[in-house]
């Protein structure tokens, strides 16, 4: 990405939605079935065969119920069906590999990516068995590719189902990206951003600090008379917070001239409006003794701003559990 003194251009950010399904047998102290959902590499929800309940893992994911009050119940129903489908899948694969007891694991990873600048989307869908690739969907040609000899028959059967392949194409080019955009919006609009001016001592640098923002594509810089400063400035890296949000800071050497000429600018990818904080002694928060700056309470955080998954019918010898359930479809597993 290139930026000048006057303009800063964000790199495009590739958002991702990834779903992980894991079914296992005879694994000590581990649920037989687990689903984990991830957006931009942090967890958004979770299900396992012990709790039998899909639960959010980010507070802002609860915002989904504003659009659909029954969302979590709906998702739980589909997870329960997927659990049963996976149990049959695992049994079928053990027979295909001439296996009986012991530890065995089926894994599925599927999802999509969306470039928030170009709008480009792509999907991925792959199965693994006992730690090895088993079968993968080529989303460019919309054909299944066998990674092992035991998957050839399944590949042939799945590639015959043109209607299902068309459904998958629609899912990975439209439905999945739509869900991803919705989840990203929940995070972007729900996470509270706090921007503050901080100082350790009267002679130390002034720190401009923003925290609680999402995603992790943001820029912060100091300006003088509207132009970006490069001297007497120390720009920090974006760091993660414990809740999945992020923080960033930029230090400014105390100016000798009029403080009113200076301001701090925070820019978040995907948000049109910048957040600008003037360098004002009354706004600086500090805990050094004798401080009379910062207004009534220097121990409270500065300005607050708000930035402006399922089981399915079977195919071949194992079924694809991630397609949305359609109540009018047959969901019985095919014979092993």
From TrEMBL:
User: Which key words tag this protein in UniProt?
Assistant: Glycoprotein, Signal
Specify whether Chloroplast is a keyword of the entry.
Answer: no
Q: Which Gene3D superfamilies match?
A: Immunoglobulins, MHC class I-like antigen recognition-like
Q: Which InterPro entries match?
A: Ig-like_dom, Ig-like_dom_sf, Ig-like_fold, Ig_C1-set, MHC_class-I_related, MHC_I-like_Ag-recog, MHC_I-like_Ag-recog_sf, MHC_I/II-like_Ag-recog
Q: Where is the composition biased (Basic and acidic residues)?
A: 312-336
Give the CC-aspect GO terms.
external side of plasma membrane; extracellular space
Q: Which GO terms describe its biological process?
A: immune response
Specify the signal sequence span: 1-16
Name the protein family.
Belongs to the MHC class I family.
Q: What is this protein called?
A: Ig-like domain-containing protein
Organism name: Labrus bergylta
């Amino acid at each position: 990405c290139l930026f000048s003194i006057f303009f800063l251009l964000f790199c495009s950010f590739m958002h991702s939605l990834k779903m992980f399904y894991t079914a296992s047998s005879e694994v000590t102290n581990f649920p037989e079935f687990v689903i984990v959902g991830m957006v931009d590499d942090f967890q958004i929800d979770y299900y396992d065969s012990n709790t039998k309940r899909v639960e959010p893992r980010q507070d802002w994911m609860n915002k989904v119920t504003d659009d659909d009050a029954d969302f979590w119940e709906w998702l739980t129903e589909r997870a329960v069906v997927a659990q049963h489908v996976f149990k049959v899948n695992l049994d079928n694969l053990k027979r295909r590999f001439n296996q009986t007891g012991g530890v065995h694991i089926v894994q599925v990873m599927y999802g999509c990516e969306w470039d928030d600048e170009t709008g480009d989307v792509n999907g991925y869908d792959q199965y693994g068995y006992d730690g090895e690739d088993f079968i993968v969907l080529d989303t460019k040609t919309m054909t299944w590719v066998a990674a092992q000899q035991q998957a050839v028959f399944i590949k042939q059967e799945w590639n015959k189902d043109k209607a299902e392949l068309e459904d998958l194409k629609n899912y990975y080019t439209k439905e999945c990206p739509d869900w991803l955009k919705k989840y990203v919006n929940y995070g972007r609009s729900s996470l509270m951003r706090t921007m503050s001016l901080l100082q350790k001592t009267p002679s130390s640098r002034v720190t401009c600090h923003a925290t609680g923002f999402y995603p992790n594509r943001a820029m912060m810089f100091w300006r003088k008379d509207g132009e970006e400063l490069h001297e007497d400035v120390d720009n920090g890296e974006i760091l993660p917070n414990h809740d999945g949000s992020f923080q960033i800071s930029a230090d400014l050497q105390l100016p000798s001239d009029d403080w009113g000429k200076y301001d701090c600018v925070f820019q978040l990818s995907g948000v049109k409006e910048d957040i600008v904080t003037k360098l004002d002694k009354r706004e600086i928060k500090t805990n050094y003794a004798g401080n009379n700056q910062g207004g009534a309470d220097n121990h409270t955080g500065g300005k607050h701003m708000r930035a402006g998954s399922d089981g399915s019918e079977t195919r071949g010898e194992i079924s694809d559990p991630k397609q949305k359930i359609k109540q009018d479809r047959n969901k019985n597993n095919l014979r092993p």
